[in-house]
Design brief:
- It contains 6 helices and 5 strands; from the N terminus they run αβαβαβαββαα.
- It is an alpha/beta fold.
- It has one domain: Glutaredoxin (3-Layer(aba) Sandwich), CATH 3.40.30.
Length: 137
């Protein structure tokens, strides 16, 4: 588990642009099961690819007209129960952090695993997400 003061700015990087932080399994279930329209779930992380590529890419992807209705995040290594519960909804994809899931009416329709994020650029991640938003949002 990482210290709260270490991850606070990493969490705020997304919550400051409108992401709702989910910190336990119940919040994850209620959010995914009851979300109307589209829902983006970002598994945040302390790793360099989350800081350098994933979070900037996610924020960049939201600068277009078509975007998810609901924005949420869980934090790997911190919100352990929330992350474990979210990963149940990501099946058949294996656990991966960071990662990004897009749901439409409660069904997983697009997923970016760590290997899609690591080594990519923020612009590549944004373009991938924008294509998914165009199709599903």
């Amino acid at each position: 588990m990482y210290p709260a003061e270490l991850v606070k700015p990493m969490k705020e990087d997304l919550t400051n642009v409108g992401f709702k932080e989910l910190t336990n399994a119940t919040e994850v279930d209620q959010t995914i099961q009851n979300a109307e329209g589209t829902l983006l779930v970002v598994v945040n992380s302390v790793c360099g690819c989350a800081a350098g590529n994933m979070r900037p890419g996610v924020k960049l992807s939201l600068q277009q007209d078509k975007k998810p209705t609901n924005l949420t995040t869980v934090f790997a290594g911190v919100d352990t129960d929330a992350v474990a519960q979210a990963r149940k909804y990501f099946l058949p994809y294996p656990p991966s952090s960071p990662s990004i899931a897009l749901f439409k009416d409660g069904k997983l329709v697009h997923f970016l695993e760590r290997h899609h994020i690591e080594g990519g650029t923020a612009q590549m991640i944004a373009a991938n997400l924008e294509a998914a938003y165009d199709e599903f949002c």
